[in-house]
Protein backbone atom coordinates (compact mmCIF):
# COMPACT_ATOMS: atom_id res chain seq x y z
CA UNK A 1 0.00 0.00 0.00
CA UNK A 2 1.11 3.58 0.00
CA UNK A 3 4.02 4.00 -2.33
CA UNK A 4 4.71 0.32 -2.86
CA UNK A 5 4.72 -1.26 -6.30
CA UNK A 6 2.18 -3.98 -5.70
CA UNK A 7 -1.38 -2.91 -6.40
CA UNK A 8 -2.79 -3.24 -2.97
CA UNK A 9 -6.23 -2.44 -1.62
CA UNK A 10 -6.63 1.25 -1.15
CA UNK A 11 -8.26 1.06 2.21
CA UNK A 12 -5.84 -0.98 4.33
CA UNK A 13 -4.30 1.05 7.06
CA UNK A 14 -1.54 -1.12 8.50
CA UNK A 15 2.02 -0.06 7.96
CA UNK A 16 3.59 -2.85 5.94
CA UNK A 17 6.42 -1.02 4.25
CA UNK A 18 9.34 -3.43 3.70
CA UNK A 19 11.69 -0.50 4.21
CA UNK A 20 10.27 0.50 7.59
CA UNK A 21 13.26 -0.65 9.67
CA UNK A 22 15.82 0.95 7.39
CA UNK A 23 13.71 4.09 7.35
CA UNK A 24 13.61 4.21 11.15
CA UNK A 25 17.38 3.72 11.36
CA UNK A 26 17.95 6.55 8.88
CA UNK A 27 15.43 8.91 10.51
CA UNK A 28 16.91 8.31 13.98
CA UNK A 29 20.39 9.06 12.67
CA UNK A 30 19.15 12.18 10.87
CA UNK A 31 17.22 13.48 13.90
CA UNK A 32 20.31 13.14 16.09
CA UNK A 33 22.54 14.88 13.54
CA UNK A 34 19.97 17.64 13.00
CA UNK A 35 19.59 18.46 16.71
CA UNK A 36 23.19 17.98 17.77
CA UNK A 37 25.01 19.39 14.77
CA UNK A 38 23.02 21.11 12.04
CA UNK A 39 21.11 23.58 14.24
CA UNK A 40 24.36 24.39 16.07
CA UNK A 41 25.95 25.51 12.82
CA UNK A 42 27.85 22.33 12.04
CA UNK A 43 26.82 21.70 8.46
CA UNK A 44 30.23 21.15 6.98
CA UNK A 45 29.61 17.55 6.02
CA UNK A 46 26.93 15.03 5.23
CA UNK A 47 26.31 12.38 7.84
CA UNK A 48 24.19 9.23 8.08
CA UNK A 49 25.38 8.31 4.61
CA UNK A 50 25.46 4.54 5.22
CA UNK A 51 21.95 4.55 6.68
CA UNK A 52 20.70 6.72 3.83
CA UNK A 53 22.15 4.49 1.14
CA UNK A 54 20.64 1.31 2.57
CA UNK A 55 17.25 2.96 3.01
CA UNK A 56 17.35 4.50 -0.45
CA UNK A 57 18.27 1.22 -2.08
CA UNK A 58 15.28 -0.44 -0.44
CA UNK A 59 12.98 2.38 -1.56
CA UNK A 60 14.14 2.23 -5.15
CA UNK A 61 13.45 -1.51 -5.22
CA UNK A 62 10.00 -1.13 -3.75
CA UNK A 63 8.56 2.20 -4.78
CA UNK A 64 5.93 2.55 -7.43
CA UNK A 65 7.89 4.23 -10.25
CA UNK A 66 4.97 6.26 -11.58
CA UNK A 67 4.15 7.80 -8.23
CA UNK A 68 7.79 8.53 -7.54
CA UNK A 69 8.26 10.26 -10.90
CA UNK A 70 5.22 12.41 -10.27
CA UNK A 71 6.46 13.29 -6.77
CA UNK A 72 9.82 14.40 -8.07
CA UNK A 73 8.15 16.43 -10.84
CA UNK A 74 5.95 18.28 -8.35
CA UNK A 75 8.93 18.74 -6.07
CA UNK A 76 10.93 20.45 -8.81
CA UNK A 77 7.94 22.69 -9.59
CA UNK A 78 7.90 23.74 -5.95
CA UNK A 79 11.66 24.36 -5.97
CA UNK A 80 12.72 25.70 -9.36
CA UNK A 81 16.13 26.80 -8.07
CA UNK A 82 17.03 23.38 -6.73
CA UNK A 83 19.39 21.34 -8.89
CA UNK A 84 17.96 18.32 -10.65
CA UNK A 85 20.21 15.79 -8.95
CA UNK A 86 17.13 14.45 -7.20
CA UNK A 87 16.61 12.37 -10.36
CA UNK A 88 19.42 10.10 -9.16
CA UNK A 89 17.33 8.88 -6.27
CA UNK A 90 14.64 7.59 -8.58
CA UNK A 91 16.82 4.69 -9.78
CA UNK B 1 -13.31 28.45 -6.47
CA UNK B 2 -10.53 28.40 -3.89
CA UNK B 3 -10.81 28.16 -0.19
CA UNK B 4 -7.79 29.56 1.61
CA UNK B 5 -7.06 30.11 5.24
CA UNK B 6 -4.17 31.11 7.44
CA UNK B 7 -3.25 30.14 10.93
CA UNK B 8 -0.52 31.29 13.22
CA UNK B 9 0.79 29.72 16.40
CA UNK B 10 3.54 30.68 18.79
CA UNK B 11 5.65 27.94 20.34
CA UNK B 12 7.40 29.03 23.53
CA UNK B 13 10.42 27.04 22.49
CA UNK B 14 13.49 28.03 20.53
CA UNK B 15 13.53 27.60 16.77
CA UNK B 16 16.16 24.85 16.95
CA UNK B 17 13.89 22.68 19.06
CA UNK B 18 10.71 23.42 17.09
CA UNK B 19 12.29 22.68 13.73
CA UNK B 20 13.72 19.42 15.13
CA UNK B 21 10.26 18.54 16.45
CA UNK B 22 8.82 19.09 13.00
CA UNK B 23 11.04 16.32 11.61
CA UNK B 24 9.84 13.96 14.33
CA UNK B 25 6.18 14.83 14.15
CA UNK B 26 4.97 11.93 12.02
CA UNK B 27 7.35 9.23 13.17
CA UNK B 28 7.02 9.57 16.91
CA UNK B 29 5.30 6.32 17.96
CA UNK B 30 3.29 7.81 20.80
CA UNK B 31 1.98 10.51 18.58
CA UNK B 32 1.02 8.25 15.70
CA UNK B 33 -2.25 7.54 17.44
CA UNK B 34 -3.19 11.22 17.27
CA UNK B 35 -2.04 11.69 13.70
CA UNK B 36 -3.53 8.39 12.56
CA UNK B 37 -4.49 9.79 9.16
CA UNK B 38 -0.81 9.87 8.22
CA UNK B 39 -0.04 6.34 7.06
CA UNK B 40 3.50 6.47 5.74
CA UNK B 41 6.21 9.07 5.49
CA UNK B 42 9.27 8.36 3.35
CA UNK B 43 12.24 10.57 2.61
CA UNK B 44 12.85 10.58 -1.13
CA UNK B 45 15.72 12.97 -1.33
CA UNK B 46 17.89 15.10 0.88
CA UNK B 47 20.58 17.57 -0.06
CA UNK B 48 22.80 19.59 2.25
CA UNK B 49 24.53 22.64 0.86
CA UNK B 50 27.62 22.79 3.05
CA UNK B 51 28.46 26.35 1.91
CA UNK B 52 25.15 28.04 2.62
CA UNK B 53 23.90 25.80 5.43
CA UNK B 54 20.70 25.05 3.53
CA UNK B 55 19.09 21.66 3.84
CA UNK B 56 16.66 20.60 1.08
CA UNK B 57 14.42 17.63 1.68
CA UNK B 58 11.72 15.90 -0.32
CA UNK B 59 9.36 13.55 1.46
CA UNK B 60 6.42 11.45 0.36
CA UNK B 61 3.36 11.37 2.60
CA UNK B 62 0.64 8.78 2.26
CA UNK B 63 -2.55 9.94 3.91
CA UNK B 64 -5.81 8.23 4.68
CA UNK B 65 -8.44 10.67 3.50
CA UNK B 66 -11.88 9.16 3.67
CA UNK B 67 -14.89 11.26 2.86
CA UNK B 68 -18.62 10.58 2.88
CA UNK B 69 -19.70 7.44 0.98
CA UNK B 70 -20.65 9.28 -2.19
CA UNK B 71 -17.24 10.87 -2.38
CA UNK B 72 -15.60 7.48 -2.36
CA UNK B 73 -17.78 6.41 -5.27
CA UNK B 74 -16.74 9.42 -7.31
CA UNK B 75 -13.12 9.68 -6.32
CA UNK B 76 -12.54 5.94 -6.04
CA UNK B 77 -9.94 5.83 -3.32
CA UNK B 78 -9.29 6.71 0.30
CA UNK B 79 -5.55 7.11 -0.01
CA UNK B 80 -3.88 10.31 -1.05
CA UNK B 81 -0.20 10.75 -1.85
CA UNK B 82 1.42 14.09 -1.16
CA UNK B 83 4.85 15.49 -1.68
CA UNK B 84 6.43 17.67 0.99
CA UNK B 85 9.28 19.90 -0.03
CA UNK B 86 11.28 21.52 2.78
CA UNK B 87 14.11 24.03 2.96
CA UNK B 88 15.83 24.68 6.26
CA UNK B 89 18.11 27.68 6.26
CA UNK B 90 20.52 27.10 9.12
CA UNK B 91 22.08 30.55 8.86
CA UNK B 92 18.91 32.60 9.01
CA UNK B 93 17.10 30.06 11.22
CA UNK B 94 14.13 29.56 8.97
CA UNK B 95 12.24 26.46 7.93
CA UNK B 96 9.70 26.33 5.14
CA UNK B 97 7.60 23.34 4.14
CA UNK B 98 5.32 23.13 1.11
CA UNK B 99 3.00 20.14 0.80
CA UNK B 100 0.90 19.36 -2.25
CA UNK B 101 -1.22 16.39 -3.23
CA UNK B 102 -0.05 14.45 -6.24
CA UNK B 103 -2.91 11.98 -6.40
CA UNK B 104 -6.56 12.95 -6.83
CA UNK B 105 -5.34 15.92 -8.85
CA UNK B 106 -8.23 15.49 -11.28
CA UNK B 107 -10.54 16.46 -8.46
CA UNK B 108 -8.73 18.61 -5.97
CA UNK B 109 -5.61 20.69 -5.46
CA UNK B 110 -4.41 21.30 -1.95
CA UNK B 111 -1.32 23.27 -1.12
CA UNK B 112 -0.14 23.89 2.39
CA UNK B 113 2.76 26.17 3.28
CA UNK B 114 4.23 26.23 6.76
CA UNK B 115 7.02 28.44 8.03
CA UNK B 116 8.88 28.28 11.31
CA UNK B 117 10.80 31.42 12.21
CA UNK B 118 12.19 32.89 15.42
CA UNK B 119 9.56 35.08 17.07
CA UNK B 120 10.36 38.75 16.35
CA UNK B 121 9.73 39.75 19.98
CA UNK B 122 11.72 36.88 21.47
CA UNK B 123 13.91 35.36 18.76
CA UNK B 124 16.12 33.24 20.97
CA UNK B 125 13.33 31.58 22.95
CA UNK B 126 10.13 31.54 20.89
CA UNK B 127 9.11 30.40 17.44
CA UNK B 128 6.31 31.58 15.18
CA UNK B 129 4.59 29.03 12.98
CA UNK B 130 2.58 30.50 10.10
CA UNK B 131 0.50 28.21 7.98
CA UNK B 132 -1.36 28.94 4.74
CA UNK B 133 -3.57 26.33 3.16
CA UNK B 134 -5.43 26.58 -0.12
CA UNK B 135 -8.00 24.07 -1.34
CA UNK B 136 -9.40 24.07 -4.81
CA UNK B 137 -11.88 21.69 -6.40
CA UNK B 138 -11.14 21.35 -10.09
CA UNK B 139 -13.92 23.09 -12.00
CA UNK B 140 -14.68 20.40 -14.55
CA UNK B 141 -14.37 17.48 -12.21
CA UNK B 142 -17.25 15.32 -11.07
CA UNK B 143 -17.10 17.15 -7.74
CA UNK B 144 -17.55 20.61 -9.26
CA UNK B 145 -21.26 20.87 -8.55
CA UNK B 146 -20.63 20.41 -4.84
CA UNK B 147 -17.30 22.20 -4.88
CA UNK B 148 -18.14 24.72 -2.23
CA UNK B 149 -19.38 22.10 0.19
CA UNK B 150 -16.43 19.76 -0.39
CA UNK B 151 -13.94 22.62 -0.02
CA UNK B 152 -15.59 23.64 3.21
CA UNK B 153 -15.49 20.07 4.56
CA UNK B 154 -11.86 19.70 3.54
CA UNK B 155 -10.95 22.98 5.20
CA UNK B 156 -12.62 21.87 8.42
CA UNK B 157 -10.76 18.56 8.31
CA UNK B 158 -7.43 20.24 7.66
CA UNK B 159 -7.95 22.65 10.51
CA UNK B 160 -8.71 19.74 12.84
CA UNK B 161 -5.58 17.96 11.64
CA UNK B 162 -3.50 21.11 12.06
CA UNK B 163 -4.69 21.40 15.64
CA UNK B 164 -3.67 17.78 16.23
CA UNK B 165 -0.33 18.47 14.59
CA UNK B 166 0.26 21.42 16.91
CA UNK B 167 -0.63 19.30 19.92
CA UNK B 168 1.91 16.71 18.82
CA UNK B 169 4.55 19.39 18.20
CA UNK B 170 4.03 20.91 21.68
CA UNK B 171 4.36 17.46 23.20
CA UNK B 172 7.58 16.71 21.36
CA UNK B 173 9.01 20.13 22.26
CA UNK B 174 8.26 19.58 25.96
CA UNK B 175 9.88 16.15 25.79
CA UNK B 176 12.98 17.54 24.10
CA UNK B 177 13.17 20.37 26.63
CA UNK B 178 13.06 17.87 29.50
CA UNK B 179 15.73 15.74 27.79
CA UNK B 180 18.07 18.68 27.37
CA UNK B 181 17.57 19.74 30.99
CA UNK B 182 18.70 16.27 32.08
CA UNK B 183 22.01 16.45 30.19
UniProtKB/TrEMBL annotation, chain A:
The keyword Disulfide bond applies. GO terms for biological process: intermembrane lipid transfer; phospholipid translocation. The keyword Disulfide bond applies. Pfam families: UPF0203. Keywords: Disulfide bond. One of its GO terms (cellular component) is mitochondrial intermembrane space. InterPro entries: MDM35_apoptosis. Belongs to the TRIAP1/MDM35 family. This is GCK domain-containing protein. The lineage of its organism: Eukaryota, Viridiplantae, Streptophyta, Embryophyta, Tracheophyta.
Automatic annotation (TrEMBL), chain B:
GO terms for cellular component: mitochondrial intermembrane space. InterPro entries: PRELI/MSF1_dom, Slowmo/Ups. PROSITE patterns: PRELI_MSF1 (PS50904). One of its GO terms (molecular function) is phosphatidic acid transfer activity. GO terms for biological process: phospholipid transport. Residues 2-181 form the PRELI/MSF1 domain. This is PRELI/MSF1 domain-containing protein.
Amino acid sequence: MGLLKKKDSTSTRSSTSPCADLRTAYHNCFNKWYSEKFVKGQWDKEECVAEWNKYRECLSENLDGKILTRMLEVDSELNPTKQADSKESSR
Amino acid sequence: MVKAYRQEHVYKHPWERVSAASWRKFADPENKRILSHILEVDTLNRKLDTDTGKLHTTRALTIHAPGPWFLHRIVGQDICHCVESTVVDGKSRSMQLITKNISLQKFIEVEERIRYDPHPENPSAWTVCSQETSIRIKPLSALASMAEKVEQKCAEKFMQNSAKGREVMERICRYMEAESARV
